[in-house]
Structure formats: C-alpha cells, structure tokens
Amino acid sequence: MLSVNKTPYVRKHRHMFGIPGKQAVTLTPTAAQKIAELMARDGTQGLRIGVKKGGCAGMEYTMDYVRDVDPHDEVVELGDARVMIAPMAQMFLFGTEIDYEVSLLESGFKFKNPNVVDACGCGESIKFADPA
Hints:
39% strand, single chain, three-stranded mixed beta sheet, mainly beta
C-alpha cells in the first residue's frame, strides 16, 4: 500500500490560467494512490491531463503517461502522485476534482469539473460554456 501525503505541492511560478496559491485541479486520495501506482509500475514522471475536440458533446479529456515534464505544464502533486496539465487545458480544468472510482462494471478516473455545462449520456465527452 502506498502512503499518500495529504498536503499537495503547488509550484511557485506564475500560473497561466490559475489563481496564485490555488491548485488548478485537486486529487482525491484514491486518485492519488492509483496515479502513484501507475507511475511506479510504468516508470513515468506522472500523467498529463488535457482536453481535445471529439465525442458527441464536443470535447474529451486526455490522459497520457509522461516521461519528461514540460516546463509549461502546471504540476500538481499529492504524495507520490504527479499530474501535469497541458497549457491549453488549464483554463478548462481549473477547479476540477479528479477521483478514481471502482464499481462492478468499470473502474477509472472521474472528473468533477465545474466548468462543464453538458456531457453526453455515457460521460465520455463534455461541453464547456461558449465564450461570452
């Protein structure tokens, strides 16, 4: 069992779309433990999270293993878990809580994103508010 430090690390640089002193995303202890397990298993530096066009609602989340940290990524750490947020995704993901859920039929990361205004029925694609 991996230990999870409950004190998150926030970089001390200027955030592209964030509020100084506030994390772009938060990780639940369950998500942090799963990310740390994946990092240890695959020897990666963490998971990069982003968004791309696609799906029936217009946008989809992306998650990729990272071997090298991009200096422009926003980095969030909790215990041994590290998540990097691609620069163009930061404004869409700000305020998101990332959890890891296990049920009888599926398991996976779940995004609780306050910026989402609509999602498809299966929950795989999302829509953000149109810019004013």
